[in-house]
Amino acid sequence: MKKFITTIRNIFSIEELRTRILNTLGFLIIFRLGSFIVLPGVNPDQLPESADGIFGLLDSFLGGAFNNAAIFGLGIMPYISASIVVQLLTIAIPHFQRLQKEGESGRKRLTQITRVLTIIITLGQSIGYLTAYIPGEAVVVDPLFFKISSAIILTSGTMFCMWLGERITDKGIGNGISMLIMIGIISRFPNSLIFEFTSKGDQGGIILFVLEMVALFFVVMAVVALTKAVRRIPVNYAKAHVSGGRAYGGQRQYIPLKVNSSGVMPIIFAQALMFLPALFAQPFQDTDLGNYFITTFSNYQTPVYNITFAILIILFTFFYTAITVNPTEIADGLKRNGGFIPGVKPGKETSEYLDSVLTKITLPGSIFLAIVAILPAFATLAGVSPMFSQFYGGTSLLIMVGVILDTLQQIESYLLMRHYEGLMKSGKVKGRSEAAVV
């Protein structure tokens, strides 16, 4: 306990780190407050008590804002959808490929395009949300005026959430967009835990609850292992010179290739796409095809939903890994600095070798990621309540673990730069004792 208190004291003794943590907390508080401010013209007492199916899943990512008909009712999800579209365009359309390669100016242009597309997507989703979820008896003003004004407010709310995410990334700790999603998810955990405990009323139920918590612990450990797993590629550097009988410049380092290089983004992207079939099918719910899509993609326990979700995660894992890890750039960097992988020629062969290794470790990583993502369906079948089963894997757990680890690593780096002992008991995290090639 004393060591923990000392670590907290060290964290807040670093002015920049303290400022970033306080900024992050302030932005998150603003985000949570916006989840309880109801849209003008809505009678909250007439709203559904809880969202079901796909709406319930979306509400879990937004921390109740969707169910509350709040000004942040759509949260950051339209921005995620826009980011998916833009990143797909960077693969399919040469103009967007050129923008991606233009450095900072190209990234700024892509960011502007993403923002404009976010506005368009939010306007479309807001109309669907107001039509499909908010009942007519809950609207206390003119329906047409309500839809127009609320669509504008919801769009403004999403853009403000996007701004908050960018400010957290720039002025706070962690990835802002992922942080907003995580805080919405984690806000539901206490109520879910209490509900699960109280629902196991008798003595046998308490034992079952303990077993559920043990299973949850091992699932969390498996997700942490997946997030931290690294394949290290050894790299040698030629000796630069000899002076005074000692060789200088010769080093042995490594290239850390993560099993899950894409982090939580494939889950977020896949989940964003999983919302679309049911939303687009709402106007056709009276037809057999429309009803099939709504029924199938509104229930995360259906086989079609889970198979589709798993396939999307695997595809997005490969896609996001391909755009974030470039073997050719790594090989060129090694060649410029006189580094080489033992047994592999510098240049093209090094690039092909790295690409081969990356493919081999990404495949099992993506499959395991997909399995963890669909675990909530199996937890529900095993008797866990639907509310609590979301934390047995799936998007909720993966996002929470990924974002928390990323945030802790950033805090750890600040402590080490100031020569403080890190958050880990040993003062070391994986890979710190050896040099790494970035």
From TrEMBL:
Entry's localization field: Cell membrane; Membrane
Gene Ontology cellular component terms for the protein in this record: plasma membrane
UniProt membrane topology term: Multi-pass membrane protein
Keywords associated with the record: Cell membrane, Membrane, Protein transport, Translocation, Transmembrane, Transmembrane helix, Transport
Predominant localisation class: membrane
An example Gene Ontology biological process: intracellular protein transmembrane transport
InterPro entries per UniProt: SecY, SecY/SEC61-alpha, SecY_dom_sf
Record keyword Repeat present: no
Gene3D superfamilies: SecY subunit domain
Annotated transmembrane regions: 21-42, 69-93, 113-132, 144-165, 177-194, 206-226, 263-284, 304-326, 361-384, 390-408
NCBIfam families: 3a0501s007 (TIGR00967)
Family: Belongs to the SecY/SEC61-alpha family.
Subunit field text: Component of the Sec protein translocase complex. Heterotrimer consisting of SecY, SecE and SecG subunits. The heterotrimers can form oligomers, although 1 heterotrimer is thought to be able to translocate proteins. Interacts with the ribosome. Interacts with SecDF, and other proteins may be involved. Interacts with SecA.
Function (record text): The central subunit of the protein translocation channel SecYEG. Consists of two halves formed by TMs 1-5 and 6-10. These two domains form a lateral gate at the front which open onto the bilayer between TMs 2 and 7, and are clamped together by SecE at the back. The channel is closed by both a pore ring composed of hydrophobic SecY resides and a short helix (helix 2A) on the extracellular side of the membrane which forms a plug. The plug probably moves laterally to allow the channel to open. The ring and the pore may move independently.
Official protein name in the record: Protein translocase subunit SecY
The gene coding this protein: secY
